[in-house]
Amino acid sequence: MNPQLLFWIPAALRMSLILLGTGTVWFFLGPVVALAIGLAAMCGLVVIQLHYLYRLSIWLDHPDSTKLPDGWGAWTDNFSRLYRLRRDDEKNRTELAEWLARFRQAMSLLPDGVVIMDDVLFLEWCNPAAERHLGLSLDRDKGMRVTNLIRNPDFIDYIILGRYEQPMTLALRERKLIAHIIPFENRRQILVTHDVTESERIEMMRRDFIANASHELRTPLTVINGFLEIASAQPNLDAAIRVAHLKLMSEQGQRMQNLVEDMLSLTRLESVDYPLRPERVNVHNLLDQILQEANALSASRHTVSLTVDGPDIKGSTEELRSAFGNLVSNAVRYTPEKGTIELAWQETASGPQFVVRDNGIGIRPEHISRLTERFYRVDKSRSRETQGTGLGLAIVKHVLLRHKALLVIESRPGQGSTFMVKFPQSAVYEEAREDVF
Predict the structure, then answer these.
(1) What is the SS3 assignment for 171?
(2) Which residues pair with 306 in a beta bridge?
């Protein structure tokens, strides 16, 4: 039924009853009494309406759905409708608050920074990533102008020019950021920041790796091609010279092969397609073989000793042979003649460890943190003399990462170096614990 009829019909009935009662009193008691009673009845209706209007006014000042007043007549329907509207409003507010909480939680988990600003660049909200990228604090900086918080000339120029079609590169707080402002609504803007520091570092490492690998391969190729040109141009070359050239070509060819094998080893160690397949590693036999290789490489120019006093471990025998072998061969190469090299497999409270100690040329402190970088050389001329590929310690690093081990380097220039490979206690092989990895 039409709501207007629901309002007017009861009102018309009440007025009809008042008029009927007034007419009846008029008939029996006269007009004066009838008019007095009719006036009193009308005043009573007005007071009742004012009372409910007052209660409605009080509720509107302090809206609480649990204290909505009861009504009489048309007020009953009006109060019921207000009650439903109030419940719908509370439901909508609750849903909106839930969605806002979910939105903020989602924005907080994003790796990219998100800053919401008004039309005059005052900070309204930012996520934790933006706080890290830009040095902001939502609790401290909310309501402040962003250009006063991020004092970077390039960023301020980007804001002033208003050319938001393209993002800008921003160097801030030792990070490299890609910043982009996105206008939305009429009076708000979103600043999005993406940290490309790590990707730039990886890209630089990739470029350096390609450049270094190309350089390392170019030198032996130049030697081989040069000797081949000489052999082609001079068919009657002296036999002794030809033998010398062939020997150098063979050495350079072996150098290229070693370099390619080391690069392939690094690629395999970094690939997720080659997970570690642990097995029991007989450390005593492994180190005996490495000792024989070290003596062969040394050619009796050094004193190499081995002490084994530790348990077998779980891991890859071939990978550990490569890692331990690289550490030992480096010690042989960089220890002068008549020097001593000590190899030790020890059991400690924190786990077993492999130690390579020499009294060689040593390493200056500024180089130690970079020794495991690919192609990093402390002394390039010395590295060429020792025929190293520059990838040995990088291979060691990745092998140890796969075995959850740690490489510790101690060295003093002119006094020697100590390389320690520390394994966790969980790496110890036990018959009943074959699933430690």
Answers:
(1) strand
(2) 343
Residues 363, 107: Cα–Cα separation, whole Å: 47
Q: Label residue 433 left, alpha or beta by phi (over 0 means left) and psi (-120 to 50 means alpha).
A: beta
Give the mean model confidence (pLDDT) for residues 140-152: 91
Start and end residues for every CATH 1.10.287.130 domain found in the chain: 206-270
Residues in the chain, overall count: 437
Give me the helices (H) in 334-378, please: 365-368
Q: What architecture (CATH level 2) is domain 110-195? A: 2-Layer Sandwich (3.30)
Confidence of residue 72 (pLDDT cuts 50, 70, 90): low
CA-nearest of 126, 112, 284 to 195 is 112
pLDDT at 82: 74
302: its two tokens: 């050094």
Q: Which homologous superfamily is 279-427 in?
A: Histidine kinase-like ATPase, C-terminal domain (3.30.565.10)
Tokens representing 207 are 């470029």
Are β-strands 352-358 and 313-315 bridged in parallel, bridged antiparallel, or unpaired?
unpaired
Residue 284: per-residue pLDDT: 94
Asked whether the beta carbons of 27 and 19 are under 8 A apart, the reply is no
Q: HSE, CB side, 13 Å, CA atoms: give it for residue 437.
A: 19
For 189, the token pair is 């803007």
- Measured in degrees and rounded to the nearest 5, phi and psi for residue 87 equal -65, -40
Q: What is the mean pLDDT of the chain?
A: 82
Helices (H) and strands (E) in the chain, counts: 14, 12
291 falls in which pLDDT band (50, 70, 90)?
very high
* 206-270 CATH choice from 1.10.10.10, 2.40.128.100, 1.10.287.130, 3.50.30.30: 1.10.287.130
Q: Which amino acid is at 59?
A: W
Enumerate the CATH 3.30.565.10 domain ranges in the chain, comma separated: 279-427
What is the phi/psi pair of residue 308, to 5°? -120, 115
